[in-house]
Amino acid sequence: MANARDIQLDALRAIAVMLVLYSHFLAPGGSSFVGHLGVRLFFVLSGFLITRLLLDARDTSAFASGPALRSFYARRMLRIFPPYFAVLALAWFASEQSRPSLAWHALYLSNFWYARQNDWTPWLLCHFWS
User: Fold this and answer.
1) Is pLDDT larger for residue 1 or for residue 32?
2) What is the per-residue burial (b if ≥16 Cβ within 10 Å, else e) of 1-32?
3) Which of 75-79, 100-104, 125-129 comes out lowest in average pLDDT?
4) CA within 20 to 30 Å of 72's CA: 3, 28, 39, 79, which one?
5) Residues with Cβ < 8 Å from 72, sequence gap 6 or more?
6) How far apart are CA 31 and CA 28, in angstroms?
7) Residues 111, 120 contacting (CB under 8 angstroms)
8) Structural domain boundaries of the chain?
9) Phi/psi class of residue 2: alpha, beta or left (left: φ > 0; alpha: ψ in -120 to 50)?
10) DSSP label at 98?
């Protein structure tokens, strides 16, 4: 079952993404509670799928925790890093005003950059609705 796709979970993930897109682009006032629901649903699904991957790896006969975790994190890096750095590259070419902060983002130190700008609050990355 490791390579099988769960169509129902993919559908829930698509619904979560649509809720967030609605909240950002179509909701009156630029924000909506359904966007928050979409983000939470996406995180719950991600946690479920990651846990299932780890449990499936643990159930194999050749399981060894060190190599299994290294393999898991290597797969995550190969999946997440290319689009992340592609977006940073796009930001580099698209906007000159974003360039001073890109090194901070590339090193995953964004919160420290915001703190240095006196623009950081505990809820900086949250969206608010009225």
Assistant:
1) 32
2) eeeeeeeeeeebbeebeebbeebeeebeeeeb
3) 125-129
4) 39
5) 53, 54, 57
6) 7
7) yes
8) 1-63, 80-130
9) alpha
10) T
CB 104: neighbour CB atoms within 10 A?
16
| Rounded CA separation 61/63 (Å) | 6
What integer pLDDT is reported at residue 118 of this predicted model?
74
What is the distance between the terminal CA atoms of the chain, rounded to a whole angstrom?
45
Check: CB of residue 37 under 8 Å from CB of residue 19: yes
Look up residue 8 and give its amino acid. Answer: Q
> Measured between alpha carbons, how far is 45 from 23 in angstroms, rounded to an integer?
19
d(CA 82, CA 21): 22
AA letter at 91: A
**Alpha-carbon distance values, 118 to 23, 115, 121 (Å):** 28, 5, 9
pTM exceeds 0.70 for this model: no
Query: What is the pLDDT confidence band of residue 129, given thresholds at 50, 70 and 90?
Result: very low
